Structure formats: C-alpha cells, structure tokens
Amino acid sequence: MKKFKEFDIPFVGLKQGEHRFDYRIDNSFFEEFGYTDFNETSLKVDVVLHKRSNMLELDFAVKGAVNVNCDLSNEPYDQKIKGKLELIVKFGEEYNDENEDILILPHGEHQINVAQYIYEMTVLSVPAKKIHPGVKDGTLDSEIVRKLTELQPGTEKEKDEETDPRWDSLKKLLSDK
Fold first, then answer.
1. Neighbour count for residue 121 (Cβ, 10 Å)
2. What is the pLDDT of residues 129-165, one digit of tens each?
3. CB neighbours of 79 closer than 8 A, spacing ≥ 6?
4. Per residue in 60-83, pLDDT tens?
C-alpha cells in the first residue's frame, strides 16, 4: 500500500474528537487497483474520524460522477454516485479485517490507510445495471439502440419468404379439428 501514502491517516498525534479529511479521486486511483470499468472519474470523498479513548470511528462519504458505458447501448455517460460507509477501528493483539464493519489494528499502530475502503465504497455505489439516461427517455440516438428497438419482442417481422403449399395443407388439418 505504499502507492497510497496520501491515504494514510496518522491518528496517534490527534486529540480526541472529530477530525476531517478530504480527498479528490480521479481515474489514476482506480487504475492503481487494476479497476478499469470507469472511463473517467471525478469524485470527492469526505472522511470524518471520531477519535475516542479506546477506538476510532470513521465515516466515509463519496459524491461525484463516474463515466461508464451503458449496459444496453455501450454508449459512455456520466453516472452520478453517492455513497456512505461507517467503519469502527478497535485495537487488539493482531490485525483483523474479517468483519466488514470493524477493523482491528494491533496495539502500537499509529496510522490507518483508507484507500481500500474508499475504493470499495465507490465501486459498490455504482448501480449494478448501468443504463444511459438517453435510453430511458428515448433521446439517445445510436445504431445499437435502433437495432434493439427493431428486435424488441412483440414487434412482428415481415415475412418475405413463401411457405411450401404442402405445409399449408398440413397446418389446415391442425385447425380443422
């Protein structure tokens, strides 16, 4: 995690109470994680650290937009996102992050790196199904959308081919019951 040094929060020298940390996130952040689903990223992350005598409480909030490709049309668009995450940090014998809401740091640790939590919160804030607003309201004009509309179930296709007259007489037997 050396590459995410700017996301280290040194809590040892802080007084008890509330402390705020702000981060601007762009695409390079996600590229470091090997995540390539975003074309462009413009996010603001606020982290509020509540330092208590025996634990830390971290409140994360992300707000902004990620440019993604629509799942239906593959057209890029800006998806607005908002997300929140709460994390409690306690101190124990050894590092333990098995519980998603509680992180246990070894006694003697003096900082916490929040990059992984920002990454997870942001990725989980993006809707599972990404649909371009133009697809929803019908304003997006693209070749893929036209083809999808043409192939939509319920629309009859014109039959250009002639049927074999022998089949027609067999179909007639089925309907003459």
1. 19
2. 988 887 777 666 666 666 666 777 765 555 555 677 7
3. 65, 66, 67, 68, 126, 127, 130
4. 999 999 999 988 888 899 999 999
First to last CA, the chain: 76
Query: What residues contact 123, with CB distance under 8 A and at least 6 apart?
Result: 35, 37
Pairwise CA distance, residues 122 & 116, whole Å: 10
Model's pTM, two decimal places? Answer: 0.75
The per-residue DSSP string of 115-133 comes to HHHHHHHHHHHS-SS---H
Rounded-to-integer distance, Cα 32 and Cα 91, Å: 29
Distance CA 118, CA 95 (A): 19
Tokens of 6: 């700017």
Quote the distance between the C-alpha of residue 6 and its chain's center: 23
